[in-house]
Amino acid sequence: MANEEIYANDPGVQERFWAKVNKEGPQHPYEPSKGNCWERPASVNDGYGHFKVNGRMLKSHRLSCALVGNPPPKGMLCRHTCDNRVCVNPEHISFGSPRENTNDMISRGRQARGERASKSKLTAEEVMSIMKDFRKYPQIAAEYGVGDEAIGRIKRGITWRHITHL
Ligand SMILES: [Zn+2]
User: Fold this and answer.
1) 34 Cα to the center of ligand 1, angstroms
2) Residue 43 and which of 4, 52, 88, 130 are 20 to 30 A apart at CA?
3) Of 132, 149, 1, 133, which Cα lies nearest the Cα of 75?
């Protein structure tokens, strides 16, 4: 049994965990039908949220899957399909072996660059998600395939004001 699974039936853990979850996070960047990120930015280390129970630090996104009855199998990695490390929405988390995880990251990086190459401008929808994205500019820029300055101009209301109403 994986560590996370032990706590799934503990009402105290359930309550303490979900109390700090914000279900109004940014929309899933690649598959909007998967809804919003559920963010739990508590005990963040290395970008990932953590939850302490019985002196153990568990990764919040792994625990979250267990708490909704879908615990990660032992030895499996939990990957964020939304690339938002503090997200605990089980719909945004997929299980895979360490090898699958690496292959997937490589192919998605290629795909993102390809889409951008054929499309010079951001869409209004992308601009809105950029406004709701509070990560550092270079991180956001990398995700949308634009320069850091482009993100700064949007955030300061220099470009896209008709969309952002800044
Ligand atoms: Zn998410």
Assistant:
1) 8
2) 130
3) 1
Contact in structure between 44 and 53 (CB atoms under 8 Å): no
Least confident of 68-72, 77-81, 109-113: 109-113
Q: What is the pLDDT of residues 107-157, one digit of tens each?
A: 766 656 555 544 447 888 899 999 999 999 999 998 888 888 899 999 999
User: Is residue 154 within 8 Å of residue 118, measured between CB atoms?
Assistant: no
Report how far residue 150's alpha carbon sits from residue 57's, in angstroms, rounded to the nearest whole number.
38
Q: How far is the CA of 32 from the centre of ligand 1 (A)?
A: 10
80: tokens are 């964020």
DSSP state of 43: S
Cα of 40 from ligand 1 centre, angstroms: 10
Structure tokens at 41: 């930015």
Q: How far apart, in whole angstroms, are the C-alpha atoms of residue 137 and residue 69?
A: 36
